[in-house]
Amino acid sequence: MRIIAGEARGRRLEEPKGMVSRPILDSLKERLFNILADRVSGSRVWDVFAGVGSMGLEALSRGAEAAVFVEKDRRVFDVLRRNIRALGYEDRATALRADALAVRGGRGESPADLIFFDPPFPMVLRDADRVHEGLVRLAESVLSPDGLIVYRSPTQAPPWRPARVLREVDHREHGVNRLQFLQLD
């Protein structure tokens, strides 16, 4: 796994040893950031279910102002913090070891312009309603009025039809990945 573009282009990210993970493919990450284009530079980003920080670190490399990373697993969280440090982003990154479905704003972070919401696929397939409720609560808590959420889920799961607070503004499929782009209603 590597940073694709920006000031840290080509830098490799450390990954946890001996753990099964499902990192986003470089080809999908590149496609996504091409879609987001100018929205990233100067933005305040949240990388939720961050893993080793691939999405948030890519955003920082491409000029995001700041990033908040949310990861629950202790071993993965430690790797995430090392990746932030290795790229020199400690002054622009906040790492929270927390349950992504329970996290809220209010810790002094600015509202998010862009949220990457990337839960484990088995979690979405097993308990989609809980995942979607967590996403709605997070959006209500931290998303800026004109902010955007990128929600990655498996194509074998039925597409989520946002209700209440969120609306879908676009969606794309790439292999087994579905990307839904959501905004506050």
What is the H/E order? HEHEHEEHEEE
Number of domains: 1
Structural class by helix and strand composition: alpha/beta
Tally of helical segments: 4
Mean pLDDT: 92
Within the largest sheet, what's the order of strands?
A: 3-2-1-4-5-7-6
Helical fraction equals 25-40%
- How far apart the termini lie comes to 35 Å
Uncertain regions spanning at least 5 consecutive residues: none
CATH superfamily: Vaccinia Virus protein VP39
Characterization of this structure:
This protein has about 180 residues and is of the alpha/beta class. The chain starts with about 25 loop residues before the first helix and ends with a strand. It has one domain (about 40-185): Vaccinia Virus protein VP39 (Rossmann fold, 3-Layer(aba) Sandwich), CATH 3.40.50. The chain contains four helices and seven strands, in the order αβαβαββαβββ. The protein has a seven-stranded mixed sheet with strand order 3-2-1-4-5-7-6, with helices on both faces. About 30% of the residues lie in helices and about 30% in strands. It has helices at about 25-35, 55-60, 75-85, 120-140; strands at about 45-50, 65-70, 95, 110-115, 145-155, 165-175, 175-185.
